[in-house]
Amino acid sequence: MKETIPGGAKYAAIKAKLRELKLHTVCEEARCPNLGECWSGGETGTATATIMILGDTCTRGCSAYVPQVGHNENTKREFWEGLEDMVRSVPIGEKLFIGGDLNGHIRVQRDKRAKVARTKWWKLKGERRPPEAPVHSGRLKRAENVKRGRGRPNLTWEESVKRDLKDWSITKELAMDRAVSSYLRGPARFCNVKTSRTPPPPDPNEPANVAQAIASWGLEYIVITSVDRDDLPDQGSGHFAETVQRLKTLKPDMLIEALVPDFQGDRSCVEKVATSGLHVFAHNIETVEELQRSVRDHRANFKQSMDVLKMAKEYAPPGTLTKTSVMLGCGETPDQVISTMEKVRAAGVDVITFGQYMRPSKRHMPVSEYITPEAFENYRALGVEMGFRYVASGPMVRSSYKAGEFYIKAMIEDDRAKSGAVADSSC
Known about the structure:
Layout: H1 9-21, E1 24-25, H2 26-29, H3 35-40, E2 48-53, E3 57-58, H4 73-88, E4 105-110, E5 113-118, E6 135-136, E7 139-140, H5 157-167, H6 172-176, H7 178-185, E8 194-195, H8 206-217, E9 221-226, H9 237-250, E10 255-259, H10 267-274, E11 280-282, H11 292-295, H12 302-315, E12 321-328, H13 334-346, E13 351-356, H14 373-386, E14 390-393, H15 403-426
Protein name: Lipoyl synthase, mitochondrial
Pathway: Protein modification; protein lipoylation via endogenous pathway; protein N(6)-(lipoyl)lysine from octanoyl-[acyl-carrier-protein]: step 2/2
InterPro entries: Aldolase_TIM, Elp3/MiaA/NifB-like_rSAM, LIAS_N, Lipoyl_synth, rSAM, rSAM_sf
């Protein structure tokens, strides 16, 4: 599979304007392979872009890969057996392993000097530390020479364990073992967007800047999305609504899609966005119901996402489409995909897209399977049979892939069907 290198006058103009106004796009943040095609308009000339508001830093941990602890018992058993074998080869006085990032070594303290011991199993890295010692990302912190970084506070052992139990979906035993808990927190899941528990506050001028920039680009269709902002009182819903309303004022004929987070299932937040004047309300379930816990952040779940899509259908004006997307290749089975499609359709969702999960880096969740083009086509045909108004399915398809093309095409077909019905009735 190959994609054309991004280029062209329209692509260059959009990129320059983004830099000038300090705006972000999920196209760039997520390293979308279709960026050049969408920004330039591709074969149809219908240019689309996905603007990311509310900053470029997310409060969720979908970029923190957590293996399926508790789900795959064989893997779990093999891990602990391997860890025990590794520990047996270490002298008795050096068996307290605390913290680290599993990048290839175990660091132990002996005679006030660090000794490096290599291991073949999980390549753990840890340091000896008394329980009362302050910690930072699982590493020893010395009071006289404290290293600071990433804005994290200096915590005691007990405080650090409590923090992990609160912020991460792990057991107390894993939180107590700093080496293992660091492994669970270290690598990334599927998302390439930056994360933080305390991201910078939103720019109050962003809605106006975004509307001004989009109106000047000459786009026919725009997708507005955002990171999760669980730290805000309204979770960013007001920011979304204001951006859509300002854009509608400047360019009433533009088609607008809002790809929103789950707002933690808050009904008032969903209503605020759904009634802002958009044409498509999109929220991604990301994967099948059975893999939600291992792929998404623990604060997100299938039921909550379904509730958000149902509420959007309830509050949005007639004619507003609802849309969701699913990544394939995360370990799902065909039966699980079909079952998920049935539940999504039962929630009244109009549009669904399927794309191949591609690993952004070696730190991210590995690809379980590369789905064949034939399988993607089968899912597309099945979705049409189920009653979805539109199904985009293919290895390179992403949530907003060719969004403007399919929407405009659907509108033209609907208009033709209506005009044909009127002509027949007049005869």
